[in-house]
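[job 4471] stage=fold_predict status=RUNNING
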Amino acid sequence: GLCLTSGRWGQVKRIASLEYGQWDELEELVTNWALIANQALVQVLFQRYGLQSHLLAIKQYLLFGQGEFVRHLIDLLADNVQAGTSSLLHHNLTGIVETAVRASYSQGEDSDVRERVHVSTMEASSGDDLYSVFSLEYKVDPPCNAIITPRHMAKYKRIFNFLWGLKRVEQALSTSWRRASELSHIGTHAVLSKGKDRAQHKILQKFALSVAYKACNMAIHQQMMHFITNMQYYMMFEVLECSWDTFHKHIQTVSDVDALIAAHNRYVDGIIVGSLLSQESEPDKAQIDAVFRSILDYCFTQQKLTEIAARQLERYGLLSREREARDTEEEWGVGDAHDDGEEISAEDLSVPADLCSSIHLKAAEFTESFGKLRDMLGKTRQADLRSLNFRLDFSEFYADLSVEALDDDDDVDDD
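[job 4471] inference complete, writing structure tokens
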């Protein structure tokens, strides 16, 4: 209950001395006691029920404030989920999330907070994989759910889904780059081999490097990484961290529950607006999704191309190593003579032409969708988005490309 200090005891005595018709005095007393009760309620929410711990946990786990958690979660899903899978047993996903939480929690963190992070999957539609339907939610009990309401949790979930999609694209690009690099290393390793098959190994190297060149357009890949890196910086620092800093300072000084609810509303709605998830930003968000899809399509097409090439290199590479081992035995008079069989020729090593064409098509789709996004951001009235647009083209690289394209069109018209 409330501790009656001398000042509050004086308020009680004033109530006892009120007479009928002293409306102004009564209103003053009710206002004062409402302020006292609100301050006590705010104090109870923070101290007894750990409201600030819940708000911080939502930031750490649903808004990607805990980088170690996000990294562990993505790595564990990549290790346990096959490509293209759209469903997984709920308890398996729960185990993955719990493992990621345990691997990333900081010393002294409340175990009750960690246990409130739960898996939430959306209904899969045609073409969706598990990454597209995976989501997280945070369970909040009374009385804290008067501040963090189900409506707020739905908005937090939307923000998580956007951040998760952004992180997924980053992972796809990193995997894409790694596959192309591994393909190059396969060829380089093969040509360093010694023995009578050196000429054969040179053919393998030439094939590996040619596929790596076709599979990874360096300029386009760099543009994709540049876009994703700047989008992540914008979201994590200019939107999430700045919003949290303002909100955290505000809740340290709130004196009543209504002010606390209003501050939390502004915090969540500010992130929604900055993340382009508001109704007014639907066209911009749709264009960002189009850019994300074009990058994922490019990475998936590249994956098919590199996997076909890797299988061929592994097949012929193993054959070459067997021959090299056999030649070494025969050189020292060990073992019987063997028939060399068919030689490896450049015609034996190939990848489907339609995949090579598709790589160029997907790169062109990215260029087109990214250009539309920059045009849309350039016309926005929101200061943060104008800053993002400037960051995406701070060196005026894309502006120069647009000028060159216009000049080329003028030359064609003149002809």
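[job 4471] summary: The chain has 15 helices and two strands.
[job 4471] exit 0
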